[in-house]
Amino acid sequence: MHQICACVHFVGLASVYAINLVLAVAAIFKAGERGQPQLLWASKTFFVGGLAFDQLTQLPTLSETANMAKSKTKGGRKKK
Prior knowledge:
- By secondary structure, the chain is mostly helical.
- Helices cover 81% and strands 0% of the residues.
- It has a domain at 25-66.
- The chain contains four helices and no strands.
- It is rod-shaped and about 70 Å long.
């Protein structure tokens, strides 16, 4: 009985880290789009999971940052 319980815990933990691995690979590409360190975000996402991936995706991309900077210098005021 003890061996079955340990096996179930291992399978559950393995499935969590398998999902985190997929998210970590996706984080490499998302971090590149945002000019962020790819290894940092991949490892953070692998160990923390979806919380870190969500934090990364909340950051603006490089093109969004450029558009925000361009709109600030153009009119001086934000448009409503």
